[in-house]
Fold:
Amino acid sequence: MLRNGLRLLLVENHTTPTVSVNLTVLAGSCDDAEDLAGTAMMASRLLEEGTQSRSALEIADAIESVGGAIGTDCSFDRFSVCLGVLTKDIDLGLGLVGDLIRNPAFSTDSIGNERDRTLAEIQSAMDRPQVVAGWEFNELVYGRHPLHRPVHGYAETIAGLRREHLTAFHGKYAAPDNAVLAVTGDFSVDEMKDRLESVFGSWEPGSRVPNRPRLRPERTAGVRSRFVGQDSQQAHVYLGHLGIERAHPDFYTLQVMDAILGGSAGLTARIPRRLRDEQGLAYTTFASITSSAGHDPGKFLAYIGTSPENVDSAIDGFISEIEEVRSAPVSAQELADAKAYLTGSFVFAFETNAQIARFLINAELFGLGFDYPDKYPTYIGSVTADAVLEAAASHLSTEDYVLVVAGPESTVSGRIHPVD
Amino acid sequence: MSIPHSSVLDTRDIRRTRLDNGLWVLTRELHNSPTVTSMIWYRVGSRNEEPGGTGRSHFLEHMLFKGTRKYGKGEIDLLTMKNGGTNNAFTSFDFTAYYFSFASDRWEAALEIEADRMTHTIFDAVEFDAERKVVIEELKAGLDQPWGVLMQELNRTAFERHPYRNPVIGWLEDLRAATPEDMERYYRQHYCPGSAALVLVGDFDTEAALRKVEAEFGGIPAGSPPEPRYAKEGAQERERRFDLEWRSAIPRIAIAWHAPRVGHPDSYPLQVLAAILADGKASRLYQRLVERDRAATFVSAEYGEALDDTLFYIRAEGRATRPPEVIEAGIHEEVQVIAGRGVSEHELERARHQIEAHFVFSMERSLDQAMLIGQIQTLATLDYIDDYLRRVSQVDSDQVRDACGRYLTATNRTVGWLLGSPAAAEREA
Structure:
């Protein structure tokens, strides 16, 4: 950690002559004001669009001329500046990351273009019924909790974003004591520490960032459904409800459940095997509760894209599978296979520098420990069929859930009742 | 924590072996991670399909998971799951490829599976019908994507006769008419060692691996896959255009020009041209369309490497607030500028570095290496990689100007618009 509070996570990897940098700031769309939804995302994207000393074109040309890449990313609870660069260009790359995060220009001109682009991108996303269904699903699951909003905000809120909102966001959150910096790749740790000290050492810490009050979203009672008409070939079904946080003690048990029920190698899990491989209802279908688990509760989601006439069969299929995993223990074989899959495939999450950097950030933010790769097999290995049954019964529901279907008006489903 | 270095771009450490039955085996040891990717590439794709039989290669790819002599339906995925691995497959115009990634202490299961399903896939009528439904869902999912709709129509219009005009997923009518007997016949013709390349990248011992490959594949007869018979595409003599009205508030454009096949001397300046036109924010079209004219949110340029004469694409996604004509005019103007004046030394340097770096970054995963090696072996030969960077680095402004001027002409292009409908625009208001 630097004196200004910036946490450093460094891992050497000499497989390729490249370096990956991930600077993550602990603020995201959940920190937006409701009527200014989209602030975090726009502020993070604008970091690339000019600093006090470099224009957007100069930034792009500098990094692209060496075949590197720099970009920003924003999600619910964080935003990041990410860099990929050849070893020989690490000083250039680090200098750019430092400049982008510390000295953004937020010029009126670039804000205008960015606003325009974001509005167009939202319109583009609305062309995809599975995206629109996903937004509706989040609205119904989360109610007034900030996770109800898409990260990019809404057309109305984006139209109202002004320079002062963006500079205020940046000023409040972009500080070294509110950030984590992961660097992985072809370097020596001691030399890299010196480089990072020289680039980030003088970055002023912020005033103490107050903890965002943690609203607890509540699971809604009963079945709440909505139909979104869209002139598409397929209907898209989202069925589910509030899920769990990453820190929940049942996380690993539920990962095993997810591998048996909703998604594993190929089509082995129950939902894709039965709905796709056996019934031919879909090309894409899956279910998961753990993949969205974060600081705030994620969601349990079962999804299918299918022909409109199959919607009721698909919903029946989901309900039947959820009910089965809630009421009968999984077989010893299923349990063993799921554990073998989770522990065996774990290694594939750590092949690239960027993947390793992301893991380091998550290990830090969720307190997983840097020996997590060694401990993980034990966590998974200790899960029993009884534990899976208990966790499924406790966390999954076939009575209190949200159902969203997006598709052509000809989609007929007895399951959809308009939300009051 | 520290992982040892290994050489990156050198293909000299790729061992090339050919079995007596014609199967190419390309192996590269990589010991940074205890994993092995095993990939098999068949030189068969939509290019090989006859009229009435489109989609057959891709549907066949699905059937290779539905039951073989040794592995019942679902067992291949189950084996992958138990072994903690991943698997997948894909079909393109020129090839069909399958891969497994496993931990290095159990990777040989992949060879057993691939050898078995190369010749012992079962075409059960009931499974065939069930899988047809899945493929049709996949087709529908593709047509629900605006770019899926636009690119399908673009390829169909740019090519009048060559099979590249057909979507890899096939036309719906052909999928409905497909029979397991036709598919089995196609499979027996095209799935054989003589049309395949096996690529192994990862943490294994080469000698032991080659012995295992010989044991699994050595006894399979060579086979003699037929060369595709199709009508030659004549020269395009005038611009082709179409507009599609679609349920969107924003316009999308895709333009295609006929371009030479992979390895042709002109393919190198065209690769460099694509990078200068649209790779990154400093590129010509990004600066023109996204920054200056503020007419687009996204633009790309691509030379599509293929076995036969191919297409050079430029695509852009617009904004509801700007007339589509501004985008098209901007693209044509920027192309004209390069055709007239060439490009700067700085842009050439940048393009070279972008192309080189792309190779370097793709070396991080055994899967990405296996993809690159397999694709090149199928489309050309491995020497192509060795030559590629050297030839790209020799491209100069005159060559780019010349290639742009000869290929990206008005008569050689097909322009397709996917336009928003007034109804969709109203919906957004």
Observations:
- Chain B has two domains: 11-217, 240-428.
- Confidence is low (pLDDT under 50) at residues 1-7 of chain B.
- DSSP finds 16 helices and eleven strands in chain B.
